[in-house]
Design brief:
Helix content: 55-70%
Radius of gyration: 23 Å
Strand order of the largest sheet: 1-2-3-6
Shape: globular
Oligomer: single chain
Largest sheet: 4 strands, mixed
Number of helices: 17
Mean pLDDT: 83
Strand content: under 5%
Low-confidence stretches: 170-232
Length: 453
């Protein structure tokens, strides 16, 4: 909202000589930091009244668990208010709406992802909390397949519209030849001192990906301008598959490097499902101890903030040889709000927790982190930053798979992994603090890897 107001009152600012005092709001870097602070104080100031309201409504955790060995530990958490994710999501939405440019496509889509998953998680939480009053008496909430339907549906929509938005910034053509292999067709656009051919659309039906070689990316505009951003021969860096240590540009030249792979629409949507639905569920699985999910999300969110800032700043992206995606710099405000909201929530969620975020918060946090990774083309780095999330959900998949395949054998004493450590006599505070430490180190490693390339 503030950027819109700044543009609306530009002449008035000049007339009254207020430009020097207000121009700081034109800088997304300042607004990202302001969003973090605002989100923090929104949660801290509204946390007490919200927790008291949740208690009055008897929206508290039952203290039940599917693992008998953990009943004693979880029983102490009985009646602790849950659905505290409304604090996190509310702070993110308020801070982003106020400080980000709501005319920005990526910001609006990010808010849609956040609210969609929060509503889904809230419905799941409510079913769990009211299970005792229903005939089945189940505390499982929505079935897994029901949640997946809404998560995948959202991911498909986001992938489709995000892909089209990136494609709209480039001419709908690519030089090269169509190469057919196997049962599927892959449009491979091999760069180099080109051999011209008929224009071919990128991301058509049945296409898996389009790979490109060297080309002239041109003098793209800076953040805020969408014309010609990250373009070379009709291909957009908004669609590039960013592999570890891969150079998107030729050093010092601003031209696209050889051997780049450009995702078609189908592959981009598939990546969207993996990142949004996958990260949403991974964060949800991780949310099992006081402060665990919130602390890990805050650390990962800070790393994602840096990635958004780089991706949306053409000079920085080309200097660091990573994909430049116009307008994504504004997502730094969303990432900042996420960090601030998680830190504010930790004020109440640190051990012993006064409130739990529930699925309302965890599904939204994981999903929006995955979304920002997708549109900045930094999936691999964000997966590295969020390796704790990935490991937690992997242990569940391994445990369930082993149990079914072997007729009852287990790899871990309990899954997800934080409960395995708990059953090995690790204190809850030790597990949470060490997972935070690991995440911070992974964020540093991921950011350092950008410079290594």
């Amino acid at each position: 909202m503030i950027p819109w107001l700044m543009d609306l009152t530009r002449e008035m600012q000049t007339k009254f000589g207020a430009t020097w005092a207000l121009q700081i709001f034109d800088q997304w870097s300042f607004r990202a930091l302001a969003a973090a602070l605002l989100a923090f104080f929104v949660v801290v100031l509204s946390g007490g009244p919200t927790i008291r309201w949740l208690r009055r409504k008897k929206i508290g955790d039952t203290g039940l668990t599917d693992a008998a060995a953990l009943q004693a530990a979880s029983g102490a958490k009985k009646n602790t208010p849950t659905m505290g994710g409304i604090l996190i999501v509310g702070a993110i939405v308020v801070s982003t709406a106020l400080l980000a440019d709501l005319r920005n496509f990526y910001v609006v889509l990010g808010l849609v992802v956040t609210v969609w998953l929060a509503v889904l998680g809230g419905f799941d939480d409510w079913l769990k909390l009211t299970a005792a009053t229903r005939k089945t008496g189940s505390r499982q909430g929505l079935y897994s397949w029901e949640k997946l339907v809404f998560q995948i549906g959202l991911s498909v929509l986001v992938g489709y519209f995000a892909f089209n938005h990136g494609a709209a910034e480039t001419p709908a053509q690519a030089t090269g030849t169509a190469v057919t292999g196997g049962a599927v067709t892959a449009n491979l656009v091999m760069g180099g001192a080109g051999t011209p051919s008929a224009p071919k659309p990128v991301g058509g039906a049945g296409e898996i990906f389009a790979a490109g070689g060297a080309g002239n990316s041109g003098e793209g505009p800076m953040e805020g301008d969408t014309s010609g951003a990250g373009v070379s021969d009709g291909r957009s860096t908004a669609h590039v598959l960013n592999l570890p240590l891969q150079k998107t540009y030729l050093p010092g030249e601003g031209q696209l490097a050889e051997g780049l792979i450009f995702l078609g629409r189908s592959a981009f949507i598939f990546m969207s499902i993996l990142m949004i639905a996958g990260m949403s569920n991974a964060a949800n699985i991780t949310d099992g101890m006081d402060g665990l999910c919130a602390g890990v999300s805050a650390a990962v969110g800070l790393g994602v903030l840096v990635l958004c800032a780089i991706a949306g700043w053409q000079a920085a992206a080309q200097n660091l040889l990573v994909p430049y995606v116009a307008q994504t710099g504004e997502l730094a405000i969303l990432a900042g709000a996420l960090v601030g909201a998680c830190l504010g929530f930790l004020w109440f969620n640190c051990w012993p927790a006064s409130v739990f975020m529930g699925d309302t918060g965890s599904l939204a946090l994981g999903g929006v982190i995955g979304y920002m990774a997708l549109v900045t083309r930094q999936e691999v780095l964000v997966l590295l930053m969020g390796a704790v999330f990935i490991w937690e959900i992997t242990t569940v998949v391994l445990q369930v798979g082993c149990f079914k395949l072997t007729g009852g054998k287990r790899i871990f004493k309990c899954a997800p992994y934080h409960h395995h450590l708990q059953m090995n006599a690790w204190a809850e505070q030790q597990i949470v603090a060490r997972f935070w430490i690991v995440t911070v180190l992974l964020v540093v490693l991921a950011l350092a890897s950008i410079k290594v390339r």
